[in-house]
Write a structure and sequence with these properties.
Layout lengths: L2 E5 L3 H13 L3 E5 L2 H10 L4 E5 L4 H17 L4 E5 L4 H9 L5 E4 L4 H18 L1
Length: 127
């Protein structure tokens, strides 16, 4: 079973994401802030990380550093939930996170599931 780390600070949104991903057959682990995300990234391997960029700025900086270190040991795709397309370039410029995919709020559950499955399929082909 593929393991996905969901990093989101909104309780309702995290439950929605968890429901969508579990319905697709994924094992999900949840982090409600950057500190929890960093701990999870240090202790576990993930097949994909799903990040909502509404987290506090300091958490995002620290988390971005840990993501880069974790990816050096075992690459994984990153999918970012954002509010608008203008944010795509800012993510790499501000945090050095090179996202593999973006999804914009509000999103349709099937679109999220399709993008996650697509990223994981590409990763399987690369392995």
């Amino acid at each position: 079973m593929k393991k996905i780390l969901v990093i989101e600070d909104d309780l309702l949104m995290i439950r929605v994401l968890e429901l969508i991903l579990k319905r697709e057959g994924f094992d999900t682990e949840l982090a409600f802030n950057g500190k929890e995300a960093i701990l999870n990234l240090v202790l576990n391997d993930y097949d994909l990380v799903l990040i909502d960029l509404k987290l506090p700025f300091d958490d995002l900086r620290e988390m971005a550093d840990q993501i880069r270190r974790s990816q050096a040991a075992r690459p994984f795709p990153i999918m970012v939930i954002i509010l608008g397309a203008f944010m795509e370039t800012a993510i790499n410029d501000w945090f050095g996170i090179e996202a593999d995919e973006f999804i914009y709020k509000p999103f349709v559950p099937q679109a999220l599931a399709s993008k996650v499955n697509g990223l994981l399929k590409v990763r399987r082909l690369q392995d």
